[in-house]
Amino acid sequence: MQFVRFPVNGDNFLVEGPDGKPITSIISIVSASTKAVRRSRGTATHELVFMATVPALGYNTYMVYRAKFTQKFQEMVFSKPMREKALSTSPIVIENEFLKITFDNNTGLLDTVIDTVSNLTMMVKQTFLWYNSSTGTPDSSQASGAYIFRPNRTNPIPIMLRNNVLTKVYQSNLIQEVHQEFSPWLTQVVRLYKAQRHAEFEWTVGPIPFQDGFGKEIITRFDSDIKSGKQFFTDSNGREILERVKDHRDTWFYNVTEPVSGNYYPVNSRIYIKDDKKQMTILTDRSQGGSSLQEGSIELMIHRRIQHDDGRGVGEPLNETGQFGDGLIIRGKHFVLLSSPAKSASLHRNLAEQLYMAPSISFFKASADWQIKYNLSGSFLHKNLPANVHLLTLELWDSNTALIRLEHQYEKDEDPDLSTNVTVSFKVITIKLVCKKNVFTVPTTKNLPCRHLNSV
C-alpha cells in the first residue's frame, strides 16, 4: 500500500484503479511552506492524493481525469477537499485505525501518541533546537565544520519565536494533518494516513538565519517517558541493529571530552529506544546523525549552516547559499512507530522495505483506448515470497541467465515468528522473464555459486 501525492492545477479530479473503478482521492491546497521551497519553479495550486497498491515485483496503472462536474456524474467518486478544522480549547487530536496523536492546545507541541491496538500510551514532546557551532576553545582549536560536529555547549537552544507554535488542523477520510510553524524558516506537517501504523513528520528547514554570526546545527528531538536509561539502538546500512550506550565503548575505556558529538552515531535508516513495555522507533528518509543523550530521548541532525572552516580540507565554511543566494532549504521526513518491543521488528522491518524499496512512479498521457490496448496490472512473480524473505537482486546477465539473491530480513530472535528459518523453492517463485534456461544464485555474503555449497 502506497499513498501517491503529486501537484496538480485545479480541484476536481477523478481517479480510477486498474480495474476501471473509481477510487477515493483527496485534493489539498499547496501549503505556504511548499510555495516557499519551490519559489518561482512551480505554479501548481493543489496536490492530489490517493491510496495505491502494487503487486509484488509488479505494476498497477491508475487513470487520473480532470473532471467536469455535471448532473450526469452525480454518482462518480470525485476528489474530496481537505477541510481545515476549527481549533478550540480542547487538545488537538488526529487519529486513524491504529494511532491516536494529541497535541497540547496551549503550546501546539506533540503531547501523546497512543497505539490503540495494543493500548500503549507514550507521553512525548517533539521540538526543534539548534546547537551553536564551536569556533574553537582554549583546550582545542578545532572548530565545527563540514567534517566535524562540535557544539560549544551541551544544551541546544529551542527554536520557537513565541510560547507556542502556530497550528492548523486539516482532515479528510484518507489523511489527517497538523501543520506547525515553529519560526518563519522552520515548519512541519504531522500526518496520519488511513490504515497506516506509523505517523509521518515532514519538516521544512531553512534558509537558516546567519546574520548573528553563529553557526547553527539544527536537530529535531523527541522526549518521551520511555525508561531507556543510557541505551539506544541504531542500524548498520539498513540491516543489522547495533546497541549503543551513552558515554561507553565495549572494547576500551572511553574518556568523555565531547559529551554531545562523542555520542552521535550514523543513522542510515532507523534509531530506537525501548523499555520493558514500549518502543519508539524513528525511521529516516536519508542518512543522518543521531543519538539519545537523555533517558527517553531521541535526537536527529537535520540541517547545518556554519560560519567557520573546520580545517579538514574543504577550505571554506559550510555555508552554502543555494540557487537563490540566501541559503539552502531542506525538506525531509521522519516516520515514527510506537509498539511493544516484541512486535517492533515486524513493524519497522516491514515499513523500511516500503520506504526504501518504494515503487517508482511514472506519468504519461493516455489515449482514450489505453485500458483496452494495454494491461493495467501485472506481476513478474508466480507467487509472493514469504513475509520475512526479500528479493535482494534480480539481474539479467544475458538472454538465458539471471542472477537472483534472496535475503532473510530478520535477525536471530528479533521476532518470535519472522526470525525463524524459512525454506524457499525457486521452482515455486520462478521469475516470469525472458530468461529461459539458467537461474544463477549466490549467497548474499559471498560471490560463490550455490552449487558449491552444501545447502542454500
Describe this protein with a few key phrases.
456 residues, mainly beta, 3 helices, disordered C terminus
Tell me about the largest β-sheet: 10 strands, antiparallel
Spans of at least 5 consecutive residues with low confidence: 450-456
Neighbour order of strands in the largest sheet: 9-15-16-17-18-27-24-23-20-21
Q: Helix/strand-derived class?
A: mainly beta
End-to-end Cα distance: 31 Å
The number of distinct β-strands equals 31
Query: Any idea what the shape is?
Result: globular
Number of helices: 3
**Fraction of residues in helices?**
under 10%
Give a topology summary.
Blueprint: E1 2-8, E2 13-16, E3 22-23, E4 25-29, H1 32-38, E5 46-52, E6 58-60, E7 63-66, E8 80-81, E9 83-85, E10 92-95, E11 99-103, E12 110-115, E13 120-132, E14 157-158, E15 166-171, E16 175-183, E17 186-193, E18 199-205, E19 216-224, E20 231-236, E21 240-245, E22 265-267, E23 270-274, E24 279-284, E25 288-291, E26 297-305, E27 330-339, H2 341-356, H3 370-373, E28 377-379, E29 389-398, E30 401-408, E31 438-441
Parallel strand pairs: 4-8, 30-31
Antiparallel strand pairs: 1-5, 2-3, 2-7, 4-5, 6-28, 9-15, 10-11, 11-12, 12-13, 13-14, 13-19, 15-16, 16-17, 17-18, 18-27, 19-26, 20-21, 20-23, 22-25, 23-24, 24-27, 25-26, 29-30
Short description:
The chain has helices at about 30-40, 340-355, 370-375, and strands at about 1-10, 15, 20-25, 25-30, 45-50, 60, 65, 80, 85, 90-95, 100-105, 110-115, 120-130, 155-160, 165-170, 175-185, 185-195, 200-205, 215-225, 230-235, 240-245, 265, 270-275, 280-285, 290, 295-305, 330-340, 375-380, 390-400, 400-410, 440. The model is unreliable at about 450-455 (pLDDT under 50). It has 3 helices and 31 strands.
